[in-house]
Backbone:
């Protein structure tokens, strides 16, 4: 039997999974770029590659995140390696990067920390945009830290230091100009954890206590001891947690407490300034 054409295989896959996911998976199976696919739709797809693609489509159809299947994901201006040891970087987390950059003047030798760095997304985006800054990235998972370290090398960023430990614990005596974190913030019993892509991601990077706020409470409690006067704490959180996180920051005597909304107009990042 004659082999299928690239565009035929793609059309069939698009009827079973998201169209962009289908393109990413076929490009990955072929070791090509997505734009190459569109220029070569009429080319035959060798049987062995069709089989490899079919297996990827089936896994995606069963819920595995496409970023784990292809092994990387774009975030900010970076290409990040991702494995099931790390959360898949999300577009809404770019808001946290934007809000941080507004508070990091480019020319100064600032000290910045990213707590629970995972794949390194926030730390590495800030390191890229602020080459004079020194960024400390922490994570309790040594497997995640290995991925983050590989991403620093992959993106040729030398101004990031990685330290193992929970939240602020590995920060030591140094004081920071800004501490950012995208901690786990989903409530333990939330049914979303048992559906879709979230089932495949590390539970410790997603869920945090009965109301989802355990990690945020710890960070708000511990961060002031590691911030300079005037330094900022920035936290990503769930769309319905803005009020609770503002209250936590005010109770901890932070000033300028405010919440920023993501592109979908949902509360996503709350920040405060140490007095
Ligand atoms: N934004 C993610 C989600 O709801 C959760 C990420 C997190 O807990 N930090 O899918």
Residues:
């Amino acid at each position: 039997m004659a082999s299928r054409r690239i565009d035929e295989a793609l059309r069939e896959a698009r009827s079973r999974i998201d169209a962009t996911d289908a393109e990413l998976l076929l490009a990955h199976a072929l070791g090509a770029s997505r734009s190459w696919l569109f220029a070569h739709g009429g080319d035959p797809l060798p049987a062995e590659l069709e089989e490899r693609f079919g297996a990827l489509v089936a896994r995606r159809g069963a819920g595995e995140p496409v970023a784990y299947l292809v092994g990387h994901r774009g975030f900010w201006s970076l290409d990040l390696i991702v494995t099931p040891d790390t959360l898949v970087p999300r577009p809404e987390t770019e808001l946290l990067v934007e809000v941080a950059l507004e508070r990091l003047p480019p020319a100064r030798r600032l000290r910045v920390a990213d707590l629970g760095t995972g794949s390194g997304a926030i730390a590495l985006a800030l390191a890229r945009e602020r080459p004079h800054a020194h960024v400390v990235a922490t994570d309790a998972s040594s497997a995640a830290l290995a991925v983050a370290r590989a991403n620093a090398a992959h993106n040729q960023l030398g101004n990031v230091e990685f330290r193992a430990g929970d939240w602020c614990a590995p920060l030591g005596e140094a004081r920071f100009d800004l501490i950012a974190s995208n901690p786990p913030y989903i409530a333990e019993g939330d049914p979303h954890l048992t559906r879709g892509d979230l089932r495949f991601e590390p539970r410790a990077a997603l869920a945090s206590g009965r109301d989802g706020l355990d990690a945020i409470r710890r960070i708000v409690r511990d961060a002031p001891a590691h911030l300079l006067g005037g330094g900022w704490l920035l936290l990503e959180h769930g769309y319905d947690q803005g009020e609770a996180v503002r209250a936590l920051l005010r109770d901890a005597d932070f000033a300028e407490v405010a919440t920023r909304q993501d592109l979908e107009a949902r509360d996503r990042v709350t920040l405060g300034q140490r007095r």
